[in-house]
Amino acid sequence: MDSYRIKVVETLKKIFKDKSYSNIVISNDIRNIDLRHQALYRKSVLGVVEHLMFIDWIINQMSNTKTKKMETDVLVVLRLAVYQMFFLDNSYENMVVSESVQYIKDKGNIRASKFVNGVLRNILRQKKELLEKMEHLPREEYLSVKYSYPAELIKRWQLQFGKNKIEEVLSANNAEAPLEIRVNNMKISRDELLKIFNEKGIIAERCKYAHKGIRILNPIETDKTEEYKKGLFSIQSESSMLAGQILNPAEDSLVIDMCAAPGGKSLNASEIMNNTGKILSRDIYPGKLSLIEKEKQRLGLNNIKAEAYDATVTDETLIEKADFIIADVPCSGLGIIRRKPEIKYNRTEAEIKEILNIQLKILENAAKYLKRGGMMVYSTCTTNKEENLDIVMEFLKHNKGFALEDFSDKINDFPDAKKGYIEIYPHVHGMDGFFIAKIKRL
Ligand SMILES: C[S@@+](CC[C@H](N)C(=O)[O-])C[C@H]1O[C@@H](n2cnc3c(N)ncnc32)[C@H](O)[C@@H]1O
């Protein structure tokens, strides 16, 4: 087996057996992969997780031992092989089978290697029939298998977006997420950085909505570039950048970021404020704060103070102190399935309900810290209305001194910005699914 494929198998084992997050395991393991193979390595790992229900359905059609009962080595090798056969260039199918078999043989398990050989050869022979059989499943089961989404989530999205839109929604959330970066306006302008990229053969363009954003079209190892090391840019999704653009914190003000780690929105705010004033960046997990400290150094920012604090607990020392607040609350993450595909299998309806109280509590505390005339953004990376507009409306119902603020001067093409909030969807805007509301203390 090619060394990068062995690495894919090893990474997948960590994700399936140890239940580790794909983005964290990938960013650790990718360091040992040859530069030429990194893009394919990432695509393969994420691809297997993304298409897991499809892949397991195929395997279970052709194997008497079901995937639930298989030992990890065998299961992971089969999953990767089926992914390659159905979703990657299929001209190497025979090689995929022989390398998968060899991998299990090398582990000393001859019996299992024969089993892998039998299952994969059968799948290869009946590829077309299997796809036809899938198409004849009852509609909701078919959608669930074809796009790999639990029935519960499909039901939720059919209600939200309509039955006629559902395939578009499912497929957009399976698409590869674009690589977006935020220009550090303290050090360079967006056009100057684009010019440098252009000279270096990095294909990039301006983001459509985020004024500080660049979309990189050919995959590169951004964090290894000289420009990254010099702090000229950071990796941040366009949706996430928009929270800062919409809040637009003024120079010399006090900003409180209630849930700050790993720091993307605090760092953006600091750049927007030209490193003036003060930003209090808090997160409940002390271990995550070091990332903010590291990034501050790289970007040349020193107006950020990172500290551990539970945002659901009121801090009496901050009452009516802040000019601006960022409440980027923990959420179900249903808007970033493209980047963390396991989210679609892991979120139960009960968990989603549980998080609502935390979100409302954090927003209520944030409101207490805001001065009269101050502004805050409430944001999530989910498309779930209950965690978004419903929370904001519930808050406004009980807090009469606050109102949604029109920010249509800060963003184009989002009619709701006039009403004080936007809902971003991968299937509509090609960006991560996000919700951003701007609330003013009257
Ligand atoms: C959506 S992430 C924040 C991302 C960050 N704003 C950024 O742009 O990089 C939510 C954060 O909330 C933190 N968190 C969860 N519960 C919290 C609580 N009760 N108090 C403060 N932070 C909390 C999590 O550790 C997580 O880092």
UniProtKB/TrEMBL annotation:
Keywords: Cytoplasm, Methyltransferase, RNA-binding, rRNA processing, S-adenosyl-L-methionine, Transferase. GO terms for cellular component: cytoplasm. Coiled coil: none annotated. SUPFAM superfamilies: NusB-like (SSF48013), S-adenosyl-L-methionine-dependent methyltransferases (SSF53335). Pfam families: Methyltr_RsmB-F, NusB, RsmF-B_ferredox. Residues 169-442 form the SAM-dependent MTase RsmB/NOP-type domain. It is an enzyme of class 2 (transferase). It is found in: Cytoplasm. The keyword DNA-binding does not apply. GO terms for biological process: regulation of DNA-templated transcription. It catalyses: cytidine(967) in 16S rRNA + S-adenosyl-L-methionine = 5-methylcytidine(967) in 16S rRNA + S-adenosyl-L-homocysteine + H(+). GO terms for molecular function: RNA binding; rRNA methyltransferase activity. InterPro entries: MeTrfase_RsmB-F_NOP2_cat, MeTrfase_RsmB-F_NOP2_dom, NusB-like_sf, NusB_RsmB_TIM44, RCMT, rRNA_ssu_MeTfrase_B, RsmB-like_ferredoxin, SAM-dependent_MTases_sf. S-adenosyl-L-methionine binds at C259, A260, A261, P262, G263, G264, K265, D283, D310, D328. Transmembrane segments: none annotated. Its EC number is 2.1.1.176. The active site is at C381 (nucleophile). Its main location: cytoplasm. Belongs to the class I-like SAM-binding methyltransferase superfamily. RsmB/NOP family. Specifically methylates the cytosine at position 967 (m5C967) of 16S rRNA. This is 16S rRNA (cytosine(967)-C(5))-methyltransferase.
